[in-house]
Design brief:
Chain lengths: 81, 766
């Protein structure tokens, strides 16, 4: 599921540092939860920047700010830039 | 970043060619020649994601909403408004903010029903207005792409246009309009810009739609899905003669566990629908189109291909000033301190900033009014009804209008500048300890204004268990109806000590503390409810934070105006009626002849310029207090006095507390009436406040002191004295069990809390 042209490193979202930007490579887990996230704009290919780490964390998706604390059944993997 | 990636697929791009039928509306009214009378009245729907400025746009179009209600059977607020243009009047339906038209719950289905004209209470929608935050155009167009598949005339609003350039974005609105085949209007609703253009575009879209029938296919989703949609439509037609719209068929296929399928399946001949859908999904999966993920994938692909030429963004996603603010305001320590500090300032402002207005009403307006009534009406039942029942009763409540307006001013300010969502973010951590999420925080916060909209706001909580817990603790939040009770007792019995050079007052501190009582008690209550009644895992928390902005004066003042109106309406209806009932119970039975004659004699002396002797006044007070003690109210009060004595209350307070079960403010009206009937309020003195300070037990001790005031306030902080709240709990939980439960547990808590407060504080004070 790795899009071409981006680096090979893949990390769980919570491993990104503050203000580090990463591209969402994969969201796995509970299907309806994953779908809901994608409707809100968090899906494969979205570039996210971590504004605040922790639980919940605060993500910047361009101009949009999303607060996020996922259940244990959803994992987001990103490829840092 | 560049959402403007090169066109990845061509299949989406062809979709718009057929739909070029709304004309090229940014140009001119070339197609708008039809001025059919039937088209003069229009109904339009506003649809958009949360935080796109939809309600601001609604008020920019319509002013205050004409009607707010609920759709039948669900908890979705129905908000209608109207405006007029040169051709006729337009009804605006404001649909709840949503990210998607996928209908997983009955509440989500309402929007679909309204848009497809299945909602019996709303007239057919002529034009759909899709509102998009221009700075988030790519993500926001997801909903637009679904609206597009409905096949009705659409107008796309790029709102927050004023922020596009400062963010280094470039958007070619005319190009997008041409590409998508829909009128595009750029707006800054908060600055009232672009509104006339929007009204014109809506009218044009409706007029050009008259001449053409709109083609639905091909949709954004591509031929493979469209053919399954057609097949499903065919099947429902063959199986039971049910004609479903292409959009409905699309949703049937796409919404896993969707509510539309569940409802349709119940119709005769449709029991095989589930199998049909499952078979279609299997075929799609074989074609590498897995439901539901393929929908978002295809739509975002389509959006990128449409926008690539027309939107460019600076190499962005860097830290902004709002992120630096968020760094502090969402900090786990500073964030909570900042929240507490903000609330503290709000309650200081409420006590210190409105005292002059309150004094003006009690010192000038009320006595003037009472004096006027005394000139017009002779002493008797009618004058007593007006003066003791209405002016002393309802008037005592209206005195608190300035405080209510002040509270809503601050709530409006905090909401509109974007702070409230940050508070929810900070609170999420503490809420998870109770097994809830930050999502529960916003309904609880709005319950500080009023539990009724607060409980209705719980519908954003996806998990039913969390929603139930939030509903049951929401009435513990200190609502604005408690504010008058607190303010009355605080100004009367808490010493007016100032600290920090007069900036901080003890009264404000006590008022703030009273607002914390309910919230503090809610913590163990929520924990117990979650543990024993609604056990379940802590829900995930996904919420969009709106960007910070300068609060718009019109939005804030509108909110203040709305709530001020609601408060006065309540005072004029529910509280008015309660006050009259209380007055009648306090007036009858009894022979008022002697006291009326006495009053007439005294007024005669006054009219001739003299002062009535003190013994006449004492005589009248004695007669009046005998009358009220013999009245129905007095007898009932004496009967319950033993029950409320441990709380430090006399029979008057007990009657007041019981009379306030329909609505909290009634205690003020009741006390106002009791003291007025009892002759305790003299003309020209400060009304209820002074009467309470002078009120004495038969042995001469004053009834009220700080301990009694605290005990009353704690009782009111915890008690479920609000019929409207209980009714809304019944409606939202669809059972009588939960309102009864709330009523019982809160009343018990209130009694025990007041008992504890009085017994402890009376020992500390003496």
């Amino acid at each position: 599921m790795i899009a071409s042209g981006i680096s090979e490193t893949i990390l769980p979202l919570d491993q990104l540092r503050i203000n580090e930007v990463g591209e969402v490579v994969e969201i796995v887990g509970n299907e309806s939860e994953v779908h809901r996230l994608s409707e809100m704009g968090l899906h494969h290919g979205t570039r996210v920047r971590v504004v605040k780490r922790g639980s919940p964390c605060l993500l910047a998706l361009d101009g949009k700010r999303l607060s996020l604390r996922l259940g244990s059944d959803v994992d987001i993997f990103v490829s840092p830039e | 970043m560049a959402p403007a990636t090169p066109q990845e697929t061509g299949d989406g791009a062809t979709a718009n060619d057929v739909r070029d039928d709304t004309g090229a509306p940014l140009k001119s009214a070339s197609t708008a020649h039809s001025t059919n009378a039937a088209a003069a009245r229009l109904t339009i729907a506003l649809v958009g994601n949360p935080n796109t400025g939809k309600s601001t746009l609604f008020s920019a179009l319509c002013g205050t909403p004409a009607r707010i209600g609920n759709y039948p059977g669900v908890t979705v607020e129905k908000k209608l408004g109207t405006y007029s243009d040169a051709h006729g009047s337009i009804t605006v339906v404001d649909l709840p903010g949503t990210y998607s038209l996928a209908a997983r719950t009955l509440d989500e289905k309402v929007s679909v029903d309204v848009l497809l004209d299945h909602q019996k209470q709303t007239s057919a929608i002529d034009v759909i207005v899709s509102i998009v935050d221009a700075t988030n155009i790519e993500r926001n167009l997801y909903l637009f792409s679904q609206l597009r598949d409905i096949g009705k005339p659409l107008v796309l609003v790029l709102n927050m246009w004023d922020r596009v350039e400062p963010q280094g974005m470039k958007i070619d609105a005319a190009g997008i309009s041409e590409r998508l085949g829909v009128p595009v209007v750029t707006c800054s609703a908060s600055r009232r810009r672009g509104i006339p253009e929007l009204k014109q575009a809506i009218r044009q879209a409706a007029m050009s739609a008259e001449q053409q029938t709109r083609a639905i296919f091909p949709t954004v989703l591509g031929e493979a899905l469209d053919s399954e949609v057609r097949q499903l439509m065919q099947w429902t037609a063959d199986a039971s003669g049910t004609e479903v719209e292409p959009f409905v068929a699309q949703r049937l296929l796409m919404d896993v566990d969707g509510v539309l399928a569940k409802q349709l399946q119940l119709r005769p001949g449709m029991s095989g629908l589930g199998e049909q859908i499952a078979a279609a999904r299997t075929r799609l999966e074989q074609a590498k189109l897995k439901v539901p993920t393929c929908e978002t994938k295809l739509r975002y692909q389509w959006i990128r291909s449409q926008l690539s030429e027309f939107v460019s963004q600076s190499e962005g996603n860097r830290e902004t000033w709002s992120d630096r603010i968020d760094h502090w305001l969402t900090h786990r320590v500073w964030g909570i301190l900042a929240f507490a500090a903000i609330m503290f300032v709000v309650f200081q402002a409420i006590t210190q900033g409105t005292a002059w207005a309150m004094d003006f009403i009690t010192d000038s307006i009320q006595p003037w009014f009472a004096g006027w009534v005394e000139q017009v009406l002779p002493p008797g039942t009618l004058r007593s009804l007006v003066n003791d029942g209405i002016i002393a009763g309802v008037g005592s409540v209206i005195v608190f209008l300035p405080q209510i307006l002040m509270l809503f001013f601050f709530i409006g300010l905090l909401e509109d500048c974007g702070y409230m969502a940050r508070a929810a973010f900070v609170m999420d951590k503490s809420m998870t300890k109770l097994g809830l999420s930050g999502k529960s925080f916003l309904p609880l916060m709005s319950s500080f204004a009023c539990a009724v909209p607060g409980i209705m706001a719980t519908r954003v909580i996806e998990s039913r268990r969390d929603r139930m817990v939030t509903i049951l603790i929401a009435p513990l939040m200190s609502c604005s109806a408690r504010l008058p009770v607190y303010v009355l007792l605080v100004t009367a019995f808490v010493p007016s000590i100032k600290y920090a050079g007069g900036w901080i007052g003890l009264q404000g501190i006590v008022l703030f503390a009273m607002h914390l009582v309910g919230a503090a008690v809610a913590i163990p209550v929520a924990w117990l409810l979650k543990k024993y009644f609604f056990p379940g895992a802590t829900p995930p928390f996904v919420m969009e934070l709106p960007s910070y902005k300068l609060p718009s004066p019109s939005v804030v003042l509108n909110r203040v105006w709305e709530r001020g109106q609601a408060f006065l309406t309540r005072a004029g209806t529910l509280i008015f009626c309660s006050a009259i009932v209380v007055w009648a119970a306090g007036y009858f039975p009894g022979n008022h002849q002697p006291v009326n004659e006495l009053t007439q004699r005294m007024e005669g002396i006054e009219a001739s310029g003299g002062d009535p002797p003190a013994e006449l006044q004492a005589e009248r007070r004695k007669l009046s207090s005998q009358l009220i003690e013999q009245s129905y109210l007095g007898r009932a009060g004496k009967a319950i006095e033993p029950m409320v004595r441990p709380l430090g209350w006399d029979w008057r307070i007990g009657v007041g507390a019981i009379a306030s079960f329909p609505a909290r403010e009634v205690i003020i009206a009741t006390l106002g009436t009791i003291y007025s009937l009892g002759g305790d309020v003299d003309e020209g003195d400060e009304g209820l406040l002074a009467a309470m300070k002078q009120s004495k037990w038969p042995d001469g001790r004053p009834v009220y002191n700080l301990a009694v005031a605290l005990s009353i306030m704690v009782f009111f902080a915890l008690c479920a004295q609000c019929a409207a709240t209980l009714m809304v709990i019944k409606r939202e939980t669809n059972s009588w069990r939960w309102p009864l439960f709330s009523f019982a547990y809160m009343t018990l808590l209130a009694y025990l809390g007041a008992l504890l407060t009085y017994q402890v504080s009376i020992r500390l004070i003496s």
